[in-house]
Write a structure and sequence with these properties.
Rossmann fold, 6 strands, globular
Length: 202
């Protein structure tokens, strides 16, 4: 049996989710150096890097003004929707966008599509990916939902627990999300373990 192929999913490292943004995750920007190192590791090994982003219309049921839970954030074309300026995306990274349907919340990157309309699962299958490593924001919402959806679709999912941060609407939400991911069949690892894990093909 051949070695299974791994890919990296970087979830929503956007200005509005970092300090100073419309919906800031505490220390959300602190993961950027680690995410950069991980992306570079995948790039050097010729492994796919997929980067998701919230890309909301101005009017969406996701926002409080239209019946949702959140203040306006990551509105298409705004500074807040841009990736964090220190995030160094590999040239070949695939960007997928979610939250464009005004009737959907779309927390999961598996609800995201490329600019040509391919969904995340199709992209991963095309690359023959079996093992998905996940980093980004926020642990208790989009990282959690993306990890669950990956597990449901039959991917091995490993969350890089030192390269995620949570919203923490309630203290402990992030820790609870990581526990739930593990119970669902996901694995939690540190970024420092990645070279060994990738070399082992696990």
């Amino acid at each position: 049996m051949g070695r299974e192929k791994s890919a990296l999913l970087v979830v929503d490292v956007q200005n509005d989710f970092c300090p100073g943004g419309a919906l800031p995750v505490s220390e959300g920007d602190k993961i950027v150096p680690k995410v950069n190192r991980v992306m570079e590791l995948f790039r050097r090994r010729g492994l796919p890097v997929v980067v998701s982003r919230d890309w909301h219309p101005r009017q969406t049921k996701h926002f409080k003004a239209f019946g949702g839970a959140w203040p306006p954030h990551c509105v298409q074309g705004t500074k807040g929707a841009r990736f964090h300026p220190d995030l160094r995306l590999p040239e070949e990274a695939v960007v997928v966008s979610k939250g464009m349907d005004p009737e959907e919340d779309s927390y999961s990157a598996f609800q995201a599509v490329t600019d040509t309309g391919r969904d995340l699962e199709s992209v991963l299958r095309e690359y023959d990916v079996a093992h998905l490593f996940v980093a980004g924001l926020a642990t208790d919402y989009c990282v959690r939902a993306s990890s669950f959806d990956g597990i449901k679709r039959g991917f091995r999912v490993t969350v890089l627990k030192d390269a995620v941060r949570g919203v923490e609407m309630k203290i402990g939400d992030s820790a609870a999300a990581l526990r739930e991911i593990r119970v669902a069949g996901g694995v939690l690892q540190e970024t420092k373990d990645l070279p060994r894990l990738l070399s082992a093909g696990t």
